[in-house]
Write a structure and sequence with these properties.
455 residues, alpha/beta, TIM Barrel, 8-stranded parallel beta barrel, two-stranded antiparallel sheet, 13 strands, 42% helix, globular, binds flavin mononucleotide
Length: 455
Protein backbone atom coordinates (compact mmCIF):
# COMPACT_ATOMS: atom_id res chain seq x y z
CA UNK A 1 0.00 0.00 0.00
CA UNK A 2 1.15 3.56 -0.75
CA UNK A 3 2.30 5.69 2.11
CA UNK A 4 -0.72 7.83 3.04
CA UNK A 5 -1.17 11.01 5.05
CA UNK A 6 -2.38 11.02 8.64
CA UNK A 7 -4.83 13.90 9.06
CA UNK A 8 -5.68 15.33 12.46
CA UNK A 9 -8.09 18.15 13.36
CA UNK A 10 -6.66 20.56 15.94
CA UNK A 11 -9.60 21.39 18.24
CA UNK A 12 -10.10 23.52 21.33
CA UNK A 13 -12.77 23.22 24.03
CA UNK A 14 -13.22 26.97 24.00
CA UNK A 15 -14.73 30.03 22.31
CA UNK A 16 -12.30 30.09 19.37
CA UNK A 17 -10.15 27.72 17.38
CA UNK A 18 -6.38 27.73 17.63
CA UNK A 19 -6.71 31.13 15.95
CA UNK A 20 -8.12 33.53 18.58
CA UNK A 21 -9.70 35.81 15.98
CA UNK A 22 -11.75 32.90 14.63
CA UNK A 23 -14.64 33.73 16.98
CA UNK A 24 -14.86 37.15 15.28
CA UNK A 25 -15.03 35.60 11.79
CA UNK A 26 -18.41 36.41 10.21
CA UNK A 27 -19.31 32.76 9.54
CA UNK A 28 -18.12 31.20 12.82
CA UNK A 29 -20.92 29.64 14.85
CA UNK A 30 -20.92 30.73 18.48
CA UNK A 31 -22.74 27.82 20.16
CA UNK A 32 -19.41 26.55 21.57
CA UNK A 33 -20.99 25.98 25.01
CA UNK A 34 -23.29 23.27 23.64
CA UNK A 35 -22.69 19.62 22.70
CA UNK A 36 -24.23 20.24 19.27
CA UNK A 37 -21.30 22.49 18.30
CA UNK A 38 -18.76 19.71 18.90
CA UNK A 39 -20.94 16.92 17.51
CA UNK A 40 -21.44 18.87 14.29
CA UNK A 41 -17.66 19.14 13.87
CA UNK A 42 -17.21 15.45 14.73
CA UNK A 43 -19.70 14.33 12.08
CA UNK A 44 -18.06 16.54 9.45
CA UNK A 45 -14.62 15.13 10.27
CA UNK A 46 -15.90 11.58 10.12
CA UNK A 47 -17.53 12.30 6.73
CA UNK A 48 -14.05 13.27 5.56
CA UNK A 49 -12.42 10.11 7.06
CA UNK A 50 -10.13 12.32 9.16
CA UNK A 51 -8.12 10.06 11.47
CA UNK A 52 -8.31 12.02 14.68
CA UNK A 53 -10.00 15.00 16.31
CA UNK A 54 -7.67 16.21 19.00
CA UNK A 55 -8.18 18.82 21.74
CA UNK A 56 -5.38 20.91 23.10
CA UNK A 57 -5.66 22.24 26.65
CA UNK A 58 -4.31 24.65 29.18
CA UNK A 59 -5.31 24.70 32.82
CA UNK A 60 -5.76 28.46 33.16
CA UNK A 61 -7.08 31.47 31.26
CA UNK A 62 -4.30 33.34 29.45
CA UNK A 63 -3.89 36.08 32.08
CA UNK A 64 -0.11 36.59 32.09
CA UNK A 65 -0.33 39.61 29.77
CA UNK A 66 -0.72 42.76 31.95
CA UNK A 67 -1.03 40.39 34.92
CA UNK A 68 -4.81 40.30 34.68
CA UNK A 69 -7.47 38.39 32.73
CA UNK A 70 -9.28 41.57 31.56
CA UNK A 71 -7.51 41.74 28.18
CA UNK A 72 -8.00 38.05 27.34
CA UNK A 73 -11.59 37.85 28.53
CA UNK A 74 -12.59 41.22 27.06
CA UNK A 75 -11.29 40.34 23.60
CA UNK A 76 -12.18 36.62 23.76
CA UNK A 77 -8.58 35.46 23.38
CA UNK A 78 -9.06 31.81 24.36
CA UNK A 79 -11.20 33.09 27.19
CA UNK A 80 -13.08 29.82 27.82
CA UNK A 81 -11.51 26.49 28.65
CA UNK A 82 -13.74 23.51 29.27
CA UNK A 83 -12.52 20.05 30.16
CA UNK A 84 -11.58 18.44 26.81
CA UNK A 85 -12.04 14.82 27.92
CA UNK A 86 -15.70 15.41 28.66
CA UNK A 87 -16.27 17.04 25.28
CA UNK A 88 -14.43 14.21 23.59
CA UNK A 89 -17.01 11.78 24.96
CA UNK A 90 -19.78 13.96 23.57
CA UNK A 91 -18.22 13.76 20.12
CA UNK A 92 -17.47 10.07 20.41
CA UNK A 93 -21.12 9.29 20.98
CA UNK A 94 -22.04 11.08 17.73
CA UNK A 95 -19.52 9.08 15.61
CA UNK A 96 -18.33 5.50 15.05
CA UNK A 97 -14.84 5.60 13.53
CA UNK A 98 -13.34 9.04 14.19
CA UNK A 99 -10.35 8.89 16.57
CA UNK A 100 -10.62 11.25 19.56
CA UNK A 101 -7.66 12.67 21.44
CA UNK A 102 -7.36 14.93 24.43
CA UNK A 103 -4.54 16.75 26.14
CA UNK A 104 -3.97 16.06 29.85
CA UNK A 105 -1.09 17.45 31.91
CA UNK A 106 1.63 15.41 33.61
CA UNK A 107 2.62 18.37 35.74
CA UNK A 108 -0.71 19.08 37.42
CA UNK A 109 -2.60 15.79 37.31
CA UNK A 110 -1.93 12.50 39.10
CA UNK A 111 -1.00 9.48 36.98
CA UNK A 112 -3.57 7.10 38.48
CA UNK A 113 -6.33 9.59 37.69
CA UNK A 114 -5.15 10.17 34.10
CA UNK A 115 -4.74 6.42 33.52
CA UNK A 116 -8.30 5.81 34.74
CA UNK A 117 -9.94 8.67 32.76
CA UNK A 118 -8.31 7.61 29.49
CA UNK A 119 -8.77 3.86 30.00
CA UNK A 120 -12.46 4.45 30.71
CA UNK A 121 -12.91 6.68 27.67
CA UNK A 122 -11.09 4.13 25.53
CA UNK A 123 -13.59 1.47 26.61
CA UNK A 124 -16.63 3.71 26.17
CA UNK A 125 -15.43 4.79 22.70
CA UNK A 126 -14.38 1.23 21.72
CA UNK A 127 -10.66 1.88 21.31
CA UNK A 128 -10.71 5.25 19.53
CA UNK A 129 -8.88 7.37 22.13
CA UNK A 130 -5.51 9.15 22.21
CA UNK A 131 -3.81 11.11 24.98
CA UNK A 132 -1.72 14.20 24.19
CA UNK A 133 0.90 14.26 26.92
CA UNK A 134 1.85 17.81 27.93
CA UNK A 135 3.99 19.17 30.72
CA UNK A 136 2.03 22.50 30.78
CA UNK A 137 3.46 25.93 30.36
CA UNK A 138 2.81 28.66 32.89
CA UNK A 139 2.43 29.93 36.44
CA UNK A 140 -1.31 30.64 36.02
CA UNK A 141 -1.76 26.88 35.75
CA UNK A 142 0.45 26.41 38.84
CA UNK A 143 -1.65 28.89 40.83
CA UNK A 144 -4.87 27.07 39.91
CA UNK A 145 -3.42 23.84 41.29
CA UNK A 146 -2.07 25.14 44.60
CA UNK A 147 1.55 25.71 43.56
CA UNK A 148 3.24 29.09 43.78
CA UNK A 149 5.38 28.58 40.64
CA UNK A 150 5.48 26.55 37.46
CA UNK A 151 8.00 23.71 37.69
CA UNK A 152 11.32 24.17 35.86
CA UNK A 153 11.45 22.93 32.22
CA UNK A 154 13.63 19.81 32.44
CA UNK A 155 12.22 18.81 35.84
CA UNK A 156 8.77 18.81 34.21
CA UNK A 157 10.00 16.28 31.68
CA UNK A 158 11.66 14.16 34.43
CA UNK A 159 8.32 14.07 36.21
CA UNK A 160 6.60 13.29 32.90
CA UNK A 161 8.92 10.31 32.27
CA UNK A 162 7.99 8.80 35.61
CA UNK A 163 4.34 9.71 35.03
CA UNK A 164 4.42 7.59 31.85
CA UNK A 165 5.86 4.60 33.70
CA UNK A 166 2.97 4.77 36.16
CA UNK A 167 0.23 5.30 33.57
CA UNK A 168 1.47 2.63 31.17
CA UNK A 169 2.18 0.32 34.09
CA UNK A 170 -1.42 0.62 35.29
CA UNK A 171 -2.78 0.17 31.77
CA UNK A 172 -0.91 -3.14 31.64
CA UNK A 173 -1.86 -4.50 35.06
CA UNK A 174 -4.90 -6.30 33.62
CA UNK A 175 -3.62 -8.89 31.17
CA UNK A 176 -5.51 -9.10 27.87
CA UNK A 177 -7.35 -12.30 28.83
CA UNK A 178 -7.91 -11.59 32.54
CA UNK A 179 -11.72 -11.43 32.27
CA UNK A 180 -13.45 -14.87 32.41
CA UNK A 181 -17.13 -13.91 32.95
CA UNK A 182 -18.22 -17.42 33.91
CA UNK A 183 -21.48 -16.94 35.84
CA UNK A 184 -22.05 -20.61 36.58
CA UNK A 185 -18.52 -21.30 37.81
CA UNK A 186 -18.48 -17.96 39.71
CA UNK A 187 -15.25 -16.96 38.06
CA UNK A 188 -15.40 -13.30 37.07
CA UNK A 189 -11.72 -12.78 36.36
CA UNK A 190 -8.43 -14.61 36.75
CA UNK A 191 -6.83 -12.88 39.74
CA UNK A 192 -3.39 -14.16 38.70
CA UNK A 193 -3.75 -11.99 35.59
CA UNK A 194 -4.54 -8.79 37.50
CA UNK A 195 -1.41 -7.29 39.04
CA UNK A 196 -0.40 -4.56 41.42
CA UNK A 197 1.95 -1.98 40.00
CA UNK A 198 3.70 -1.13 43.31
CA UNK A 199 5.41 1.90 41.82
CA UNK A 200 7.69 3.92 44.11
CA UNK A 201 9.75 6.69 42.51
CA UNK A 202 11.04 10.23 43.12
CA UNK A 203 7.75 11.87 42.09
CA UNK A 204 5.07 9.20 42.52
CA UNK A 205 3.93 6.26 44.58
CA UNK A 206 1.07 4.24 43.17
CA UNK A 207 0.13 0.74 44.26
CA UNK A 208 -2.72 -0.60 42.14
CA UNK A 209 -4.10 -2.93 41.00
CA UNK A 210 -5.69 -0.69 38.43
CA UNK A 211 -9.46 -0.68 38.35
CA UNK A 212 -10.16 -0.66 34.59
CA UNK A 213 -9.62 -3.66 32.24
CA UNK A 214 -8.06 -3.37 28.78
CA UNK A 215 -9.74 -1.76 25.77
CA UNK A 216 -10.00 -3.17 22.23
CA UNK A 217 -6.82 -1.29 21.25
CA UNK A 218 -4.90 -2.33 24.38
CA UNK A 219 -4.53 1.21 25.60
CA UNK A 220 -4.91 4.77 24.20
CA UNK A 221 -2.53 6.06 21.54
CA UNK A 222 0.21 8.32 22.96
CA UNK A 223 0.60 11.79 21.44
CA UNK A 224 3.24 14.42 22.23
CA UNK A 225 4.44 17.81 20.97
CA UNK A 226 7.72 18.64 22.71
CA UNK A 227 10.00 20.79 20.57
CA UNK A 228 13.14 21.33 22.67
CA UNK A 229 15.95 18.77 22.85
CA UNK A 230 14.54 17.41 26.11
CA UNK A 231 11.02 17.47 24.68
CA UNK A 232 12.06 15.56 21.57
CA UNK A 233 13.92 12.97 23.62
CA UNK A 234 10.71 12.46 25.58
CA UNK A 235 8.66 12.16 22.39
CA UNK A 236 11.18 9.75 20.85
CA UNK A 237 10.83 7.50 23.86
CA UNK A 238 7.07 7.51 24.36
CA UNK A 239 5.02 9.06 21.56
CA UNK A 240 3.26 7.32 18.67
CA UNK A 241 1.99 10.53 17.09
CA UNK A 242 4.03 13.73 17.32
CA UNK A 243 2.78 17.26 16.61
CA UNK A 244 5.33 19.83 15.50
CA UNK A 245 5.63 23.39 14.26
CA UNK A 246 8.02 23.63 11.29
CA UNK A 247 9.04 27.12 10.26
CA UNK A 248 9.36 26.17 6.59
CA UNK A 249 9.79 23.12 4.38
CA UNK A 250 13.59 23.08 4.52
CA UNK A 251 13.64 23.26 8.34
CA UNK A 252 10.90 20.65 8.40
CA UNK A 253 12.91 18.20 6.29
CA UNK A 254 15.90 18.49 8.57
CA UNK A 255 13.95 18.31 11.83
CA UNK A 256 11.84 15.41 10.60
CA UNK A 257 14.94 13.38 9.65
CA UNK A 258 16.67 14.20 12.95
CA UNK A 259 13.60 13.22 14.95
CA UNK A 260 13.18 9.90 13.12
CA UNK A 261 16.83 9.17 13.93
CA UNK A 262 16.16 9.95 17.59
CA UNK A 263 13.27 7.47 17.54
CA UNK A 264 15.54 4.78 16.10
CA UNK A 265 18.21 5.62 18.67
CA UNK A 266 15.60 5.11 21.39
CA UNK A 267 15.20 1.55 20.07
CA UNK A 268 11.84 2.11 18.37
CA UNK A 269 10.64 1.75 14.78
CA UNK A 270 10.53 5.26 13.20
CA UNK A 271 7.76 4.13 10.83
CA UNK A 272 5.52 3.63 13.85
CA UNK A 273 5.83 7.21 15.04
CA UNK A 274 3.82 9.61 12.87
CA UNK A 275 4.99 13.24 12.67
CA UNK A 276 2.43 15.92 11.81
CA UNK A 277 3.14 19.67 11.57
CA UNK A 278 0.38 22.13 12.40
CA UNK A 279 -0.97 24.06 9.42
CA UNK A 280 -3.91 26.16 8.25
CA UNK A 281 -5.78 25.22 5.08
CA UNK A 282 -7.69 27.93 3.19
CA UNK A 283 -9.28 26.24 0.21
CA UNK A 284 -11.88 27.47 -2.28
CA UNK A 285 -13.17 26.82 -5.78
CA UNK A 286 -10.78 29.36 -7.35
CA UNK A 287 -7.50 31.08 -6.38
CA UNK A 288 -9.35 34.38 -6.23
CA UNK A 289 -12.02 33.01 -3.89
CA UNK A 290 -9.29 31.52 -1.66
CA UNK A 291 -7.52 34.89 -1.44
CA UNK A 292 -10.80 36.60 -0.57
CA UNK A 293 -11.36 34.04 2.19
CA UNK A 294 -7.82 34.60 3.42
CA UNK A 295 -8.36 38.37 3.65
CA UNK A 296 -11.48 37.90 5.80
CA UNK A 297 -9.57 35.54 8.10
CA UNK A 298 -6.58 37.88 8.41
CA UNK A 299 -8.87 40.79 9.23
CA UNK A 300 -10.25 38.88 12.23
CA UNK A 301 -6.90 39.03 14.12
CA UNK A 302 -6.23 41.86 16.63
CA UNK A 303 -2.81 42.91 18.02
CA UNK A 304 -3.87 41.92 21.55
CA UNK A 305 -4.21 38.28 20.40
CA UNK A 306 -0.48 37.86 19.85
CA UNK A 307 0.56 39.57 23.08
CA UNK A 308 -1.86 37.57 25.23
CA UNK A 309 -0.91 34.23 23.68
CA UNK A 310 2.86 34.78 23.64
CA UNK A 311 2.77 35.83 27.31
CA UNK A 312 0.76 32.70 28.07
CA UNK A 313 3.18 30.17 26.57
CA UNK A 314 6.43 31.85 27.55
CA UNK A 315 5.18 32.51 31.11
CA UNK A 316 6.20 36.17 30.94
CA UNK A 317 4.18 39.41 30.80
CA UNK A 318 4.98 40.85 27.36
CA UNK A 319 3.13 44.03 28.39
CA UNK A 320 5.91 44.76 30.89
CA UNK A 321 8.55 45.28 28.19
CA UNK A 322 9.08 48.03 25.58
CA UNK A 323 8.10 46.83 22.09
CA UNK A 324 11.64 47.22 20.70
CA UNK A 325 13.60 46.50 23.87
CA UNK A 326 15.77 43.35 23.67
CA UNK A 327 15.17 40.64 26.26
CA UNK A 328 18.11 39.95 28.55
CA UNK A 329 19.81 36.54 28.67
CA UNK A 330 18.21 35.90 32.08
CA UNK A 331 14.72 36.72 30.82
CA UNK A 332 15.17 34.48 27.79
CA UNK A 333 16.48 31.62 29.93
CA UNK A 334 13.35 31.73 32.07
CA UNK A 335 10.90 31.47 29.13
CA UNK A 336 8.76 28.37 29.48
CA UNK A 337 8.44 26.95 25.93
CA UNK A 338 12.03 26.43 24.85
CA UNK A 339 11.26 25.28 21.30
CA UNK A 340 9.22 28.47 20.72
CA UNK A 341 12.00 30.73 22.04
CA UNK A 342 14.63 28.96 19.94
CA UNK A 343 12.57 29.38 16.76
CA UNK A 344 12.41 33.17 17.34
CA UNK A 345 16.13 33.42 18.14
CA UNK A 346 17.00 31.44 14.99
CA UNK A 347 14.73 33.22 12.52
CA UNK A 348 15.15 36.76 13.88
CA UNK A 349 18.92 36.23 13.68
CA UNK A 350 19.20 37.94 17.08
CA UNK A 351 20.63 36.49 20.26
CA UNK A 352 18.40 38.85 22.25
CA UNK A 353 15.15 39.37 20.36
CA UNK A 354 12.56 42.03 21.25
CA UNK A 355 8.80 41.83 21.78
CA UNK A 356 8.38 42.84 18.13
CA UNK A 357 10.61 39.92 17.05
CA UNK A 358 8.56 37.46 19.08
CA UNK A 359 5.32 38.81 17.59
CA UNK A 360 6.57 38.98 13.99
CA UNK A 361 8.69 35.83 13.81
CA UNK A 362 6.32 33.53 15.69
CA UNK A 363 3.17 34.87 14.02
CA UNK A 364 1.36 33.75 17.17
CA UNK A 365 -2.30 34.68 17.31
CA UNK A 366 -2.44 34.92 13.50
CA UNK A 367 -2.48 32.34 10.70
CA UNK A 368 1.22 33.06 10.13
CA UNK A 369 2.00 30.96 13.21
CA UNK A 370 1.70 27.81 11.10
CA UNK A 371 2.28 26.99 7.47
CA UNK A 372 -0.70 28.26 5.43
CA UNK A 373 -1.79 26.14 2.47
CA UNK A 374 -4.04 28.45 0.46
CA UNK A 375 -5.63 28.03 -2.96
CA UNK A 376 -7.78 25.67 -5.01
CA UNK A 377 -8.05 22.00 -4.01
CA UNK A 378 -5.38 21.18 -6.63
CA UNK A 379 -2.88 23.80 -5.53
CA UNK A 380 -3.39 23.06 -1.81
CA UNK A 381 -2.96 19.33 -2.49
CA UNK A 382 0.21 20.09 -4.51
CA UNK A 383 1.69 22.02 -1.59
CA UNK A 384 0.80 19.38 0.98
CA UNK A 385 2.09 16.62 -1.27
CA UNK A 386 5.42 18.44 -1.53
CA UNK A 387 5.79 18.45 2.26
CA UNK A 388 4.64 14.85 2.54
CA UNK A 389 6.93 13.43 -0.14
CA UNK A 390 9.96 15.60 0.76
CA UNK A 391 9.58 13.98 3.36
CA UNK A 392 8.99 16.58 6.06
CA UNK A 393 6.04 14.80 7.69
CA UNK A 394 3.70 11.82 7.79
CA UNK A 395 0.59 13.97 7.79
CA UNK A 396 -0.79 17.25 9.13
CA UNK A 397 -2.53 18.78 12.12
CA UNK A 398 -5.22 20.98 10.61
CA UNK A 399 -5.86 24.10 12.65
CA UNK A 400 -9.12 25.91 11.88
CA UNK A 401 -9.47 29.48 10.67
CA UNK A 402 -13.19 29.58 11.51
CA UNK A 403 -15.68 27.08 12.90
CA UNK A 404 -16.96 24.79 11.59
CA UNK A 405 -16.49 26.15 8.05
CA UNK A 406 -12.74 25.51 7.86
CA UNK A 407 -13.33 21.77 8.37
CA UNK A 408 -16.30 21.73 6.02
CA UNK A 409 -14.08 23.23 3.30
CA UNK A 410 -11.35 20.64 3.96
CA UNK A 411 -13.78 17.76 3.81
CA UNK A 412 -15.80 18.89 0.78
CA UNK A 413 -12.96 20.37 -1.32
CA UNK A 414 -9.54 19.10 -0.26
CA UNK A 415 -10.12 15.53 0.93
CA UNK A 416 -11.53 14.30 -2.42
CA UNK A 417 -8.47 15.69 -4.22
CA UNK A 418 -6.07 13.99 -1.78
CA UNK A 419 -8.05 10.74 -2.11
CA UNK A 420 -7.96 10.99 -5.90
CA UNK A 421 -4.16 11.21 -5.73
CA UNK A 422 -3.96 8.14 -3.46
CA UNK A 423 -2.54 10.33 -0.69
CA UNK A 424 -5.38 9.92 1.78
CA UNK A 425 -7.66 7.08 2.85
CA UNK A 426 -11.03 6.64 1.13
CA UNK A 427 -12.36 4.92 4.22
CA UNK A 428 -11.28 4.02 7.73
CA UNK A 429 -9.16 0.86 7.80
CA UNK A 430 -10.72 -0.44 11.00
CA UNK A 431 -12.62 0.69 14.04
CA UNK A 432 -9.92 1.50 16.60
CA UNK A 433 -7.55 4.45 16.39
CA UNK A 434 -4.55 2.08 16.38
CA UNK A 435 -5.96 0.16 13.41
CA UNK A 436 -6.62 3.40 11.56
CA UNK A 437 -3.14 4.73 12.21
CA UNK A 438 -1.51 1.37 11.43
CA UNK A 439 -0.09 1.15 14.96
CA UNK A 440 0.44 -2.16 16.78
CA UNK A 441 -1.79 -3.16 19.70
CA UNK A 442 0.39 -3.27 22.82
CA UNK A 443 0.14 -6.61 24.67
CA UNK A 444 0.08 -6.58 28.47
CA UNK A 445 2.13 -9.79 28.53
CA UNK A 446 4.98 -8.03 26.67
CA UNK A 447 5.04 -5.32 29.30
CA UNK A 448 5.12 -7.91 32.12
CA UNK A 449 7.90 -9.88 30.47
CA UNK A 450 9.96 -6.70 30.00
CA UNK A 451 9.36 -5.77 33.65
CA UNK A 452 10.43 -9.21 34.87
CA UNK A 453 13.53 -9.12 32.66
CA UNK A 454 14.49 -5.72 34.11
CA UNK A 455 14.19 -6.99 37.73
C1 LIG B 1 0.39 21.16 17.59
C2 LIG B 1 0.78 21.43 19.02
C3 LIG B 1 -0.17 21.30 20.03
C4 LIG B 1 0.14 21.58 21.36
N1 LIG B 1 -0.81 21.46 22.32
C5 LIG B 1 -0.52 21.80 23.60
C6 LIG B 1 -1.51 21.78 24.60
O1 LIG B 1 -2.65 21.40 24.35
N2 LIG B 1 -1.19 22.15 25.86
C7 LIG B 1 0.07 22.54 26.19
O2 LIG B 1 0.30 22.87 27.35
N3 LIG B 1 1.04 22.57 25.26
C8 LIG B 1 0.76 22.22 23.98
N4 LIG B 1 1.73 22.27 23.04
C9 LIG B 1 3.09 22.61 23.48
C10 LIG B 1 3.91 21.37 23.70
O3 LIG B 1 3.20 20.34 24.36
C11 LIG B 1 5.11 21.65 24.55
O4 LIG B 1 4.71 22.08 25.82
C12 LIG B 1 5.90 22.72 23.96
O5 LIG B 1 6.29 22.33 22.68
C13 LIG B 1 7.05 23.04 24.87
O6 LIG B 1 7.91 21.97 24.92
P1 LIG B 1 9.44 22.24 24.67
O7 LIG B 1 9.91 23.18 25.73
O8 LIG B 1 10.02 20.86 24.78
O9 LIG B 1 9.56 22.86 23.30
C14 LIG B 1 1.45 22.00 21.69
C15 LIG B 1 2.42 22.11 20.68
C16 LIG B 1 2.09 21.83 19.35
C17 LIG B 1 3.16 21.95 18.31
Amino acid sequence: MNRMMTLVAFLQAQNCSNLPGSWRHPSTMLDFLTPEYYQRIARTLEDGKIHLAFFDDRLALPDLYTGHHAEAVGAGVRAVKMDPATILMTMGLATQKLGLGSTYSTTYYEPFHVARVFATMDLMLKGRVGWNIVTSLNSAEALNFGHSEHMEHDARYDRADEFMQVVIGHWNTWEDDALILDKIGNRFADATKVHRLDHVGPYFKSRGPFSVPRSPQGHPVLIQAGQSGRGQAFAAQWAELVFVIYHNLEAGKQQYAAFKQAVAAAGRDPAQVHVAPACYVIVAESEEAALTKRAVIEASAKPVDALVLISEVLNYDFGAKGYDEPFTDEELAAFSWHGFRERVVTYSGKKNPTVRDFVEVSGRGTIAEHKVFCGTPKSVADQMEEWFTAPACDGFVLAATHMPGAYEDVVRLLVPELQHRGLFQKDYRGSTLRENLGLPIPRAADWHNARKAAE
